[in-house]
Amino acid sequence: AGLMALLVAQMFPGVILLVPIYKIVVDLGLLDTKAALVLAYSTFALPFCVWMLKGYFDTIPYSLEEAGRIDGLTPFGTFWRIVMPLSLPGIAVTAFFMFITAWNEVLFANVFLTETENYTLPIGLRTYVFQFEQQYGWLTAGAVIVTIPAIIVFLFAQRYLVSGLTRGGVKG
Fold first, then answer.
1. C-alpha distance from residue 82 to each of 18, 34, 73, 85, 110 (Å)
2. Which residues, other chains included, contact 45 with Cβ-Cβ below 8 Å and sequence gap of 6+?
3. Which of 44, 86, 110, 172 is most solvent-facing, going by the fewest CB within 10 Å?
């Protein structure tokens, strides 16, 4: 029942959830803060992460957990010493997808942030586009700079991403 509730929450596009989340942000006094974005991004990240990681954890054989229990590990010890190392590729893939989603998000940041000093980088790029003039040189230079953190995260997570995406692709 809980997984179905998360699946239903994932079905709604961001535009439909914009007004209710905006009301919650205003009621909590979080308008024009990074905490508002964290709250908004969590509404999308949580259902996606739960579903993606559930599918990944389901691929880990239960017999490995049983073997850990036979060797004297506690349930937490079994999780920490056996399941977590095996699930690092799945966690890395999920974290990378969520990082890219939050990094490139424009809708909520555009609505929740009003002061220029609080803008995220994609919203800051918007300041180079005016009604009658576009500063394409500054815009493309800014776009290249905005991609650098994503490239760095990808380079660090690349080892886990490749194994996480290909794991389970071949059974046998």
1. 40, 36, 10, 6, 43
2. 98, 101, 102
3. 172
Dihedral sign from CA coordinates of 95, 96, 97, 100: positive
Q: What is the mean pLDDT of each run of 10 residues along the chain (172 residues)?
A: 82 88 95 93 88 89 92 94 89 89 91 92 87 87 91 84 56 44
Any idea what the Cα angle at residue 56 is, between residues 50 and 59, rounded to 5°? 140
Per the document, the length of the chain is 172
Cβ neighbourhood burial of 89 (10 Å; 0-12, 13-18, 19+): buried
Tokens 């966690």 belong to 91
